[in-house]
Amino acid sequence: MRVLLNEVAPATAGPGREVDGPELAELYAYPEEAARRPWVRANFVTTLDGAVTGDDGRSGSINTGADRAVFSLLRALSDVIVAGAGTVRTEEYRRARTAPRWRWVRRADQAPHPVVAVVSRSARLPSSLLEPCADAGGVLLLTCRAADSEALEQARAGLGEEQVVVVDGDGVAPADVLRVLADRGLRRVLCEGGPHLLHDLAAADLLDELCLTLAPRLVAGDRLRLLAGRPIEQTFVPRLLVEADGTLAGRWLRGAFRAG
């Protein structure tokens, strides 16, 4: 990948430099602050006209080779992958496995694979997450008192009592999610959507950065946007931009952030 902008780790590679695996991993590394408190990054791919899915309603139909490389790297760097239940079902999530090419980036204080944490008001999970899977990360369900009792029972049977957390109230607030994760030592947080969950994190001022990939395509039609919900206004500033075969990827951080 070719570096266009680098204000996150200037010593690693300047504009115009081609970066390989180790350098790319350094450019996307979580800040040291993540050792002290949850650092929340979201990862999305969109087309040039803002669509987050193709005609099939899935992000996989618009991604590119460069996007897949960044996607697998970001998962490898994270402690936990957070997603809403709707996204988990639509995208047919499975337990996470660190890609072989990125296994070396896992830190000594991390498990071999990240945990998948599902935020669900109903507690309904697909069988692909409830079934045991060798050499893969665990699954954590975060739900609330409004959860369906039968779905809750199935989740506890499949995941174990300790992997099902029921918070007070009729919904799962973003602050509750991060509190539960931090209590388990899961502070390098990667949110993969969907648009409502990402909106709630941003609206609660809990989103630290957006890792956004622009696929070089136009698709038109009536597609979802990155965020869905009431209007909000926040400033995120590009600190890293890389390009490969027309795909543009980078890190947008909250405006108050300054490298170094």
TrEMBL record:
Named in its record, the pathway it takes part in is: Cofactor biosynthesis; riboflavin biosynthesis
For whether the record's keyword set contains Acetylation, the answer is no
InterPro entries xrefs = DHFR-like_dom_sf, RibDG_C, Riboflavin_Biosynth_HTPR
* Highest taxon of source: Bacteria
**Annotated keywords:** NADP, Oxidoreductase
Q: Which residues cross the membrane?
A: none
Which ranges carry the Bacterial bifunctional deaminase-reductase C-terminal domain? Answer: 38-234
| Family annotation (PANTHER family) | 2,5-DIAMINO-6-RIBOSYLAMINO-4(3H)-PYRIMIDINONE 5'-PHOSPHATE REDUCTASE (PTHR38011:SF7), DIHYDROFOLATE REDUCTASE FAMILY PROTEIN (AFU_ORTHOLOGUE AFUA_8G06820) (PTHR38011)
Protein name, UniProt field: Pyrimidine reductase family protein
